[in-house]
Design a protein that fits this description.
With about 425 residues, this protein is an alpha/beta fold. The protein folds into 2 domains: about 5-145 and about 360-395, Rossmann fold (3-Layer(aba) Sandwich); about 150-355, no CATH class. The protein contains 16 helices and 14 strands. Helix 2 links the parallel strand 2 (about 40-45) and strand 3 (about 65-70). The radius of gyration is 21 Å and the shape is globular.
Length: about 425
């Protein structure tokens, strides 16, 4: 049992765009002072932390009493003070490749659970290589990708496979996720993460495989090179869903997280499990043109990342600055609808729909991230007894789906 616990949960990065959303969610849904758990906020700048507390006074006058910690990602002593005084850390401090590993190391050292919202595959790989074994030994859960990357995908597939096993006594060997509709904005932090991944790969060319291999997050002894994973690179008509499809921006993260879930669960989805994700559009010329437009946007984004001049122009003109993001109105008008379809021996057997009623990358992500951390505090008895560097499905399981009910995020078996 840990000593010197002052708060059950600490939000690190509370003054950033997503960090503020997490703090607001906690205040509105659990209050500053509740009987279930205690919580505090942390960041680099005490003045900004005090300003954040004042900004929530209109929601709850008690917000001015939220306990604060000053910590810096590059100061190990300040991180140790943080992680040794709580049970779980929520980290919204990105880009994670730049700032994330010292905090993970401190959490592992001090037996503290950890949740973040990273979509940075190279960062997750480094976290696995450096800290998985010690986190396992110290019985703590390091849970990456607890936002829109990759909870809808990871828990949606887990729910589908559990239901398939109950109905057919078999899991689905082929699963496709279709983004049916989506609306959301970009933050400066997301842009910084994408740019940082590009810089990391440029400086570490030997790690290029991390972005290319569908099994790049699997344990080294559980990489299935004999199973070729399907990857969509163009506009295609999909006979399963009867829609036009094109690549989905987040599939490069989500598919690897789902494959890691399968691998560390001793291939509970099967050793020949195949999984892909794509955007989908209605049949007809209009749907085809929308799919082509999506493909061109993704191609332009990839091209711009390879051109320093174009990237500089976009950062100065279009891309939001770090700390900025969509307005409250835009986030409230956001939504997402995902369809996950599973087949056994090429015969469609089962499907799950995942719905969200707000901006997927920000307000919905804040809900998912916060409830992931709270699960480790309040639902420990229902969670899988797994430790190490984990995925949401392997660390938390279906209990998180229950926590998200009534919070605007719904998983339903069709």
């Amino acid at each position: 049992m840990k000593k010197n616990i002052k708060n059950d949960l600490i939000v690190f990065g509370a003054t950033g765009f997503t960090g503020k959303l997490v703090v607001e969610y906690l205040i509105k849904n659990y209050g500053v002072d509740n009987k279930k758990f205690t919580w505090a906020i942390a960041g680099r700048d005490i003045k900004k932390l005090e300003k954040i507390k004042q900004s929530f006074y209109r929601i709850d006058p008690q917000s001015v009493n939220i306990e604060t910690y000053v910590a810096d990602s590059f100061n190990s002593k300040s991180l140790d003070v943080l992680t040794s005084s709580c049970r779980v850390i929520i980290s919204t401090v990105g880009p994670y490749l730049k700032y994330g590993l010292p905090l993970v190391e401190s959490c592992v050292k001090n037996h503290t659970n950890y949740c973040d919202l990273t979509g940075e595959v190279p960062f997750i790989r480094e976290s696995i290589d450096l800290f998985h074994e010690k986190a396992f030994k110290n019985k703590c859960k390091i849970i990456h990708s607890c936002g829109f990357d990759s909870i809808p995908s990871d828990l949606g597939v887990l729910l589908l496979q559990k239901d398939s096993l109950e109905k057919f006594n078999k899991v689905c060997d082929n699963v496709n996720l279709y983004v049916r509709s989506i609306r959301g904005g970009l933050s400066g932090g997301t842009i910084s993460s994408i740019i940082n991944i590009k810089k990391y790969i440029h400086s570490n060319s030997e790690k290029r495989y991390v972005l290319k291999s569908p099994y790049s997050l699997n344990p080294d002894d559980k990489i299935r090179k004999n199973v070729r994973q399907p990857v969509l690179k163009s506009v295609r008509w999909d006979n399963t869903f009867n829609k036009w499809t094109s690549p989905f921006l987040m599939s490069g993260v989500n598919t690897r997280v789902v494959q890691r879930t399968n691998a560390i669960a001793e291939f509970s989805y099967g050793e020949n499990f195949k999984y892909k994700e794509m955007s989908s559009f209605d049949r007809g010329l209009n749907g085809f043109l929308k799919a082509c437009t999506m493909l061109m946007i993704l191609a332009f984004l990839q091209f711009s990342l390879g051109s320093n001049l174009l990237l500089w122009v976009l950062k100065k003109t279009i891309f939001p600055k770090p700390g900025d993001g969509p307005s409250k109105g835009k986030m409230q008008s956001g939504f997402f609808k995902l369809k996950i379809i599973g087949s056994i021996n090429e015969i469609q057997k089962n499907s799950v729909t995942v719905l969200g009623d707000s901006d997927p990358g920000y307000s919905a992500t804040a809900k998912m991230l916060t409830e992931s951390a709270i699960s480790t505090l309040l639902n420990e008895d229902k969670m899988p007894k797994k430790y190490g560097v984990l995925t949401p499905a392997s660390a938390i399981g279906l209990t998180l789906i229950e926590r998200l009910k009534g919070k605007g995020i719904l998983f339903k078996i069709d």
